[in-house]
Amino acid sequence: MSDLETTSGSGGPAGVTDGPIGGAPTTQTQLKKVKKQKVLLMGKSGSGKSSMRSIIFSNYLARDTRRLGATIDIDLSHVKFLGNLTLNLWDCGGQEAFMENYLSQQRAHVFSNVGVLIYVFDIESRDVERDLATYVNIISALVQYSRDAQVFVLIHKMDLIPPQMREDVFVQRVALVRKKTAEAVAIVRKASLSQPQQQTSLSPQQQQPGSTSPTTLPSDLEIDMQLFATSIWDQSLYKAWASIIHDLVPNLAVIETQLASLGVAIDADEILLFERTSFLVVSKWASREGETNPWGDRFERMSNILKSWKHTCSKFTGTPRNAEQFCEFQYKMGSTFAMFVTKFTTNTYILVCMPPGEARFNSAKLNVAAARPWFKYLDGPPAGVLGGGGGGGSVASVQNPYAVGSLVFSGGERGVGNPDS
């Protein structure tokens, strides 16, 4: 991502090096300093943009979104996500007058320095041609001013399509959207060839590495695009938004490495790391056994289940929607498996799924508690660690006092020296 500044210097390559289990901790990391990520949420009026935003970030239930009114112009919000990532979310009204304004008077203002565009299509729209024409204009503006932006297209309200037809309808719409995306890129390229001397309308202060004008459009440009079928009534919405957020999280590689080390140390089948407010899956790890799980949508299902559980807690405790209603949740399925969900850091919950056994279960909880301070550090590095000023050239090399080697108990290989084997 162009908005991520990777620290560099004499501290060696970015990443994590862990000592052997039981040995001295030797973890060293280089952390990334992240700017605010500008995220455009666009689509036709009534397509469901504000509803999905309210469900994900404001803890609305699907049925509660019926009370939401139409977005007027641009609804700007700052969503703090995992400590040092802030989403600068622009929810853009989809009425035709607003769309024309975005593409003309506010073109440079809206489409400059964009990190992510989320475009929502209403699958039940009666004017598909006009929707696609608007989409082509939006992509053309995005390519002109933020060619490195990621694009996520959500084919929304798929619950209105009969189940047996959904896959075919989605495949057809994906092909159509990809075709129109190529047309949008071709339009900007043609403009760049016909006006070779055209100058960018942005001032030097406004120009960023991710922004461009038609005169600098490369011939091999490809849009980084993903498409999802979504509905506010099932877990598909969580799958789409988890994918959107996943690539934006700073230091994700470091978090995933530490999560894998923790999973091996406690002999878990699977570990999920959730963002506290939205319960989107930020990171996950699975053992060889865990990878054989046939339920491919289990992560989104767990997001949905835990979000519903949080609403239930809120209802019976009288606490606000965004408050923390529970600290821990445990479930033991006899001789099949056991799992627990517990608050992990300020901004995360962790889910650990493992084989049955009381001793293994209790030791896993102790290990998670022992690892918590290190993940808390990655969640939001204290001021000064990332280096001074805005140069982004200083080294953040950190000794980890909570490396996996110092964990309280390790179950080892299953069936070998394990108290529950």
UniProtKB/TrEMBL annotation:
Give the region (Disordered) as residue ranges. 1-29, 196-216
Q: Which Pfam families match?
A: Gtr1_RagA
Q: Which GO terms describe its molecular function?
A: GTP binding; GTPase activity
- Give the subcellular location: Cytoplasm
Instruction: List the InterPro entries hit by this protein, alphabetically.
Output: Gtr1_RagA, P-loop_NTPase, RagA/B
SUPFAM superfamilies (UniProt xref): P-loop containing nucleoside triphosphate hydrolases
Q: Which is one Gene Ontology cellular component term of this protein? A: Gtr1-Gtr2 GTPase complex
Key words, A-Z:
Cytoplasm, GTP-binding, Nucleotide-binding
Q: Name one GO biological process term.
A: negative regulation of autophagy
Membership in a protein family: Belongs to the GTR/RAG GTP-binding protein family.
Q: How does it assemble?
A: Component of the GSE complex.
This molecule's function is given as:
GTPase involved in activation of the TORC1 signaling pathway, which promotes growth and represses autophagy in nutrient-rich conditions.
- What name does UniProt use for this protein? GTP-binding protein
